[in-house]
Amino acid sequence: MDSNIYSAPEAELDTVSEDEAQFYIVSPTKFWVMSLGTVGIYSVYWFYRHWAEYQHASGENMWPVMRAIFSIFFTHSLFSRIQSRIEIDKVDYRWVPALWATLYVVFAIAGAIVDRISYYSDVISLIDIVSILLLPFTLWPLYEGQKAANMVNGDISGQANSRFTPWNFVWLAVGAVFWGVGIFGAYYLLGNV
What are phi and psi of 8, to 5 degrees? Predict the structure, then answer.
């Protein structure tokens, strides 16, 4: 530290630690690998972590688990809280949280409907392909929310949570089983047509 009392203060330029975060931090690469690799199951954990971090930072009384399970009812609220922190902290970041939250809800509901229709069909059809193609569209609004949350936390690249843990690999293995069963099932059903 400089002993000159007239010198300008120096800011620490390190990234924020996960303990100091107001919202969940995750790198873009990890977000996409975990989201696609687990066939979207990661999004439940993603919502849980955001609400848990927010609860810890704000002291607000809530149930992060329920907000994660029923995410379509709480997406607008989460994105609105991220936007509030952007405005309070005067972070230079522009996005449209209501639009992204609405897109997530629409694609999540559409995906659930398509999955339900697909469940009752014994053959691979266009509806199954639509179900798979909806996954990235459902995840994209969450990615936009993640970028905003990383900005609020002062860690745009998500360095504080960019490494894959052993638990991440366990969940990716579970996702690989789901992907494998789906691909094998499609191959089997197409081979018997």
Answer: -70, 145
